[in-house]
Design a protein that fits this description.
- The structure holds two protein chains of two kinds.
- Chain A is built from one helix and eight strands, in the order βαβββββββ.
- Chain A is mainly beta.
- Chain A has one domain.
- Chain A starts with 5 loop residues before the first strand and ends with a strand.
- The model of chain A has no long low-confidence stretch (mean pLDDT 93).
- Chain B is of the alpha/beta class.
- Chain B has five helices and eleven strands.
- Chain B is globular, with a radius of gyration of 18 Å.
- Classes of the chains: A mainly beta, B alpha/beta.
- At the A-B interface, β1 and α1 of A face β6, α5 and β11 of B.
Amino acid sequence: MDELMLDGNAVAGLLQEVFAVEITTAVGTCASCGAAGPVGAVHVYRGAGIVLRCPHCGNTLAKIVKSDSRAWIDLTGIRVLEVSV
Amino acid sequence: MARTAVRGRLTWQLAELVEVVAETLRVTTIVFDVPSWPGHRAGQHVDVRLTAEDGYQAERSYSIASAPDGTRVALTVQRLEDGEVSPYLTDELRPGEKIELRGPIGGYFVWEPSDGGPLMLVAGGSGVVPLMAMIRTRAAARDDTETRLLYSSRSEDDVIYRDELERLSGNGLGVVHTLTDSQPPGWTGYARRVDPEMLAEVAPRPAERPRFYACGPTPFVEAVAEALVRLGHDPPEIKTERFGPTGG
């Protein structure tokens, strides 16, 4: 277990900044193991960028890099993101 | 939780410090007035942004400690000696001064009286803050949802909100402390880290389908969540919020 691990709540502000909707209650499906769960429950690691990992299989769900004016978001590891509209 | 989603892009707002309350030696509550505050739900947090004269910015997330109360928002902040943001918030910011803040943020680690219970809250250190917002919201709504708080602190002096928790106890709220490092003379309560046996004793049975909210440092939350699953509780009903050793 990594003491630096956080969860989806820790990046809620950033994700809402980007997607303009509350995202911790959105349900993501892991592209690797197929588990579906709320973004608030995913594992989050912060370094030079931010990595979101599946709490079930550890697959990288998303990678986010942010500068002052732009954000780069790799969502390869999420098959479906179900958002309340 | 098909509840009203918080809509729209988050924007930074100016928040004016109106009150400072010393909670423990290292923990302070700072109350802000945020004129355009849209209201919040217990468990949500805000991002705070400080900007230095040279333009350098530092951002941190803090849980909201207060029940919804108009434009007032209380944050309870633990001062980290080498932190970039917390020493400024707890020691330097004066009433009347302003900072930038955005929120409320989050919808996953949230409880409202209409969500019901039984409610089982498990706090490690300052992880009690968003759980206190739930307890205060419950009290403000005169809600009688059966609620238990298991609260782990190092010592009696490190217990945040000690008097208020005692005052609010009863009416379906039970508070159980464990003091892990030192205990006052005559202490008869728990005196060890939260473990499966303690959770089995304090938490409602799995058959009662309790809703769990656990907040604290990552190792604490991991241990609690693993123990609860082993005790037979339903994983989707175990909501967690972790904070790391960095930040502040």
